[in-house]
Amino acid sequence: MKIDLPIARLPWNGLGDELESACRKAIYDFHLLENVQKVAIALSGGKDSLSLLYLLHALRGRGFPLFDLIAIHVSGEFSCGAGIDEGFLKGICDELSVPLIVRNSTIKQDDLECYSCSRDRRKHIFDAAKENGATTVAFGHHRDDSAQTLLLNLLHKAEFAAILPKLYMQRYGVTIIRPLIYIKEESLKIFAKQYGFLRISCQCPVGQNSRRKKVDRLIKEMEEEFPHARSNLSRAALLYGSDKATRSVN
Predict the structure, then answer these.
(1) Could you tell me which of 157, 123, 118 has the C-alpha nearest to residue 141?
(2) Cα–Cα nearest to 98, from 41, 175, 174
(3) What is the C-alpha to C-alpha distance for residues 74 and 129, in angstroms, rounded to an integer?
(4) Which CATH superfamily does the domain covering 14-249 fall into?
(5) Which one of 121, 130, 138, 198 is most buried, by most CB atoms within 10 A?
(6) CA-based nearest residue to 37, from 147, 175, 160, 166
(7) Is 161 helix (H, G, I), strand (E, B) or coil?
(8) Using N-to-C axis directions, what is the helix angle for 185-195 and 143-157, rounded to 10°?
(9) What whole-number distance in Å separates Cα of residue 26 and Cα of residue 177?
């Protein structure tokens, strides 16, 4: 039996046009695709990474070079992510003619912890990307992720630092890019709902009570008194917390 897959593609509805425009602006402002011939997308299967897949697929060869695109999915019993069936993701990638590479995490429930789990997932993604000829890896982090990271680092480590639109990882020999950095999460939720791929974004049993979730709840409380708190935090992150939005780290 054929399964109807939630494929978002041109021509967009009005919101799709807005998201592509914001994605293009980030790519232009931060030179995310400069001298890039192949991009690997970290594809969890949640609304953010699938939106990124659809948007990058749509803008290839339209004002940007026709770069190659691959998707990398990290599976595992307790791996952070949307808990999406690999066959479902493969069906979407096949429909878009985007190769899907799957890596398996061996992390068990007793070892679950956001920082170490994130490092494990990234190593799988970076290794798979390089094995397949991609040294640029795109993540689906958005404006709200940037605001959360800024406040989390400030409160937890006394550092005014946020996620960067472009970051060269010297240790791994790859460059991270974040084309959704200008887009608010609510817009991605609406976009995903319109095209039928809105899913719960995290199935991790410890992720719902992480420091990041707590900071997000704190920002929501702040917004009751200061409605622009989230957008102002994300703007400050790009202006003052990101070393002019590009950096190289070991």
Answers:
(1) 118
(2) 41
(3) 12
(4) HUPs (3.40.50.620)
(5) 138
(6) 175
(7) coil
(8) 140
(9) 10
**What is the three-class DSSP state of 174?**
strand
Domain boundaries, the chain: 14-249
Average pLDDT over residues 214-221: 94
Each residue of 90-121: pLDDT tens digit? 999 999 999 999 998 776 555 555 566 777 88
Mapped onto helix, strand or coil, the DSSP state of residue 63 is coil
Task: Quote the tokens at residue 20.
Answer: 């592509």
Residue carrying the six token digits 């939005």: 245
Strands 166-169, 174-177: pairing kind: antiparallel
Residue with tokens 């460059």: 175
Q: If DSSP codes are grouped into helix, strand and coil, which group holds residue 20?
A: helix
Regarding beta strands 38-42 and 166-169, do their DSSP bridges make them parallel or antiparallel, or are they unpaired? unpaired
pLDDT at 86: 86
pTM over 0.85: yes
